[in-house]
Amino acid sequence: MMKVSVIGTGSWGTALANVLSENGHEVLMWGKTKATIEEINTHHTNEKYLKDIELHAKLAASDVLEDVVHHAEIIIIAVPTKAIRSVMQQINQVINNKKTFIHVSKGIEPHTFKRISEMITEEIDIEYMEGVAVLSGPSHAEELALKHPTTVAVASENETIRQIAQDIFMNEYFRIYTNDDLVGVEIGGALKNIIALAAGITDGLGYGDNAKAALMTRGLAEITRLGTRMGADPMTFLGLAGIGDLIVTCTSVHSRNWKCGNMLGKGLTLEEALSNMGMVVEGVRTTEAANEMADAFGVEMPITQSLYKVLFEGLDVHEGVQNLMNREKTNE
Ligand SMILES: NC(=O)C1=CN([C@@H]2O[C@H](COP(=O)(O)OP(=O)(O)OC[C@H]3O[C@@H](n4cnc5c(N)ncnc54)[C@H](OP(=O)(O)O)[C@@H]3O)[C@@H](O)[C@H]2O)C=CC1
Ligand SMILES: O=C(CO)COP(=O)(O)O
What we know:
The protein has 15 helices and eight strands. The protein is of the alpha/beta class. It has two domains: 178 residues, Rossmann fold (3-Layer(aba) Sandwich); 135 residues, N-(1-d-carboxylethyl)-l-norvaline Dehydrogenase, domain 2, CATH 1.10.1040. An eight-stranded mixed β-sheet has the order 3-2-1-4-5-6-7-8, sandwiched between helices. Strand 4, helix 4 and strand 5 form a beta-alpha-beta unit. The longest helix has 23 residues. It binds NADPH dihydro-nicotinamide-adenine-dinucleotide phosphate and 1,3-dihydroxyacetonephosphate. It is an enzyme of class 1 (oxidoreductase).
């Protein structure tokens, strides 16, 4: 059994830390909100993020980053993409030996187009970096916390790290597949959130399964186009981190991206929809990044580009759908 640290006490960090504790590892979580830390340590719950779930009795949390970083050689990073750089900079201030980072976040940084593993590598001094991996796939925290069968991929350029990640997480309800396509697994997890927002919008507008199936299929085509341009293996997008995660996020009642899109389809503004959520909706910022990337690399991404106009330029959602349907005739 191993010591593992988990950075982030939100829904995904808590669900994964709970699995690691269930698997017998000695887990210490870090979060910035004292009340959450106290609740985890005292009541073994995290009601804001994982309602009605009793956490493993040995799962512990702290708001002292230094203690959590020094606790283990394996560090799980589970904060929203927007917080990655600042959290990694704080970790770099207190780190004192080599660590393996396994991140579970789904996004791309606007303007720089950096993936999460690239941001982590940039922010941690090289002498403290053992390696980095991503864990991603169709997995809502709410279901994993209930021990419902869940499968994900873990990708790293380093085979030993892939195997360590597989070994620490895997159990009878959480099945981990290794994958050597770090770029593809990160890009698939990030870009599916854009399509889930769009699927939420068409559901909110009252369109049915035809529209959603169209978005998922044509969405996968544009994810694959941008992903391969970034160096991913196109086959990755037919796996858990591609189509698998696209299915779960576009069809699940748990998806924050789908829920946010649904509110937009029902007429709420982006600001209103986001303030109703209270949890991270990664797809909004990723749409900004992917829209810039589509322009910069000359990759055709009509769904992403229409959604960008809806989110950031005030395009009416009905018009967004009409624009997509009335594009130039083309081959599949
Ligand atoms: N939820 C899920 O089912 C899944 C989520 N993911 C991905 O995991 C990542 C995290 O998501 P999730 O756990 O759901 O998000 P939540 O919104 O549930 O929680 C976010 C967590 O990050 C913390 N946080 C936010 N900003 C900062 C900051 N600047 N510094 C330190 N901590 C910060 C929050 O702290 P506080 O509470 O103190 O504000 C909170 O603990 C996302 O990229 C998401 O896409 C991936 C698969 C499944
Ligand atoms: O990535 C996820 C499921 O695999 C979580 O999706 P949401 O952020 O839309 O809830």
